[in-house]
């Protein structure tokens, strides 16, 4: 007993010393970040997205101003698959310190980059930024509710279906919460107001002035060779607590929702279900009418025709048992993954502040649910008197993921050709 206690004590001491050597970490957006007045508030870029295309692009695929050192942030699996490429930007923001109109840089465009920029504006791309892990939102007036929020800000605008203007000036409005008995600040809101401003009225790179109140817009064409970018920063006190800072995003419109595709899919499913129901009802009605005839001469013949012939087929194994059990196992795996993911999301464990966590959780759960998918697949295969259970197990594990991987592998060639971050 004494030897056991000594071993246990040694194990505890070793475990405690290992814990002292480890570094703590937190899930981004779950723990609040405290700022003092004048501290740097880093503005990061995520990606460019559009409601008209399915292709995201990284921020510096367009000629935005770059900082001295470009650093891409650590990403999880979900962010990579979503096309997120989080990177630092050239915006210089200090906590609770307003900044006037500042020119960031002047960019020189070649013909290819100018053409790409024009194409992105025509495709209605939006730019997504982050401040203290809070996504930027554009505030639009709405007659129904007064104000409406949308993720990111528009890269540019199209007028008269031919004239294009780029939003090269950004008004950054940050909201902070500060308790009277505390000296620290917390970021609780991040609004942006994009604007197209004529580069000729801007000052030289790095200069600050009052030029952003001038009139004139920056037109963009395939012949454009130079562009200037600028920004201004305004801080506003807010009564919103840090724990409630995501509430305003719940009613936001998502630029990634393709309503036409959703409605089209629902209509097609309903139409096919109606056609199938009509065929089945007409077939059964005809057969039942034949069976209800009072002609005794047809009674024996009718027993050999119609849908009653299949009454004994439920006891006969199908021709392709292995294919059946593979898809049944994949169905159980997907169903279990979906149910648990929805349950975890309903409990609030997949915070929106941790981007990509939902997709990452889905992939991890799909792998774990492979145990149950394999169990039900093997059980069904055994009940159907199958003999090659090892081959059935391997096919169940590889068939559905293999099909998805092959499709993704093929699609990635097209996405790669478009230089998308997806």
Automatic annotation (TrEMBL):
Signal peptide (residue range): 1-24
Subcellular location: Golgi apparatus; Membrane
Domain of life: Eukaryota
Matching Pfam families: EMP70 (PF02990)
Keyword field: Golgi apparatus, Membrane, Signal, Transmembrane, Transmembrane helix
UniProt topology in membrane: Multi-pass membrane protein
Membrane-traversing stretches: 257-281, 321-350, 356-376, 397-416
Keyword Transit peptide included in the entry's annotation: no
Main location: Golgi
Family: Belongs to the nonaspanin (TM9SF) (TC 9.A.2) family.
Stated name of the protein: Transmembrane 9 superfamily member
Organism per entry: Ciona intestinalis
Source species taxonomy: Eukaryota, Metazoa, Chordata, Tunicata, Ascidiacea
């Amino acid at each position: 007993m004494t030897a056991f206690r000594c071993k246990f004590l040694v194990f505890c001491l070793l475990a405690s010393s290992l814990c002292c050597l480890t570094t703590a970490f937190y899930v981004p957006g779950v723990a609040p970040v405290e700022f003092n007045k004048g501290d740097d508030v880093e503005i990061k870029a995520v990606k460019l997205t559009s409601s008209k295309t399915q292709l995201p692009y990284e921020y510096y695929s367009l000629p935005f101003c770059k900082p001295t050192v470009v650093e891409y942030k650590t990403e999880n699996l979900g962010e990579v698959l979503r096309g997120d490429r989080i990177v630092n930007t050239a915006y210089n923001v200090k906590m609770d310190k307003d900044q006037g109109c500042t020119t960031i840089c002047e960019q020189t465009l070649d013909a290819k980059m100018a053409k790409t920029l024009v194409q992105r504006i025509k495709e209605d791309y939006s730019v997504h930024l982050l401040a203290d892990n809070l996504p930027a939102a554009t505030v639009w007036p709405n007659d129904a509710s007064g104000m409406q929020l949308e993720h990111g800000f528009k890269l540019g605008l199209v007028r008269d279906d031919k004239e294009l203007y780029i939003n090269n000036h950004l008004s950054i409005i940050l909201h902070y919460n500060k308790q009277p008995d505390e000296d620290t600040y917390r970021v609780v809101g991040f609004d942006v107001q994009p604007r197209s401003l004529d580069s000729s009225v801007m000052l030289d790179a790095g200069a600050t002035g009052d030029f952003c109140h001038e009139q004139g817009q920056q037109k963009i064409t395939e012949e454009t060779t130079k562009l200037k970018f600028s920004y201004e920063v305004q801080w506003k006190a807010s009564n919103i607590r840090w724990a409630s800072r995501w509430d305003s995003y719940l009613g936001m419109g998502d630029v990634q929702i393709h309503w036409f595709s959703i409605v089209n899919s629902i209509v097609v499913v309903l139409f096919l279900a109606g056609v199938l129901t009509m065929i089945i009802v007409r077939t059964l009605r005809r057969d039942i009418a034949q069976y209800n005839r009072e002609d005794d001469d047809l009674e024996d013949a009718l027993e050999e025709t119609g849908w009653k012939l299949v009454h004994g087929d439920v006891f006969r194994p199908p021709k392709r048992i292995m294919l059946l059990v593979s898809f049944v196992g994949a169905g159980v795996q997907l169903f279990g993954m979906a149910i648990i993911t929805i349950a975890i999301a309903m409990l609030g464990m997949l915070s929106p502040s941790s981007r990509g966590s939902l997709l990452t959780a889905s992939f991890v759960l799909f792998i774990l649910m492979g145990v149950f998918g394999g169990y039900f697949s093997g059980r069904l295969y055994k009940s159907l008197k199958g003999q090659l259970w090892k081959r059935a197990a391997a096919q169940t594990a590889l068939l559905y993921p293999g099909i998805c991987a092959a499709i993704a592998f093929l699609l990635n060639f097209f996405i790669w050709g478009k230089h998308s971050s997806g």
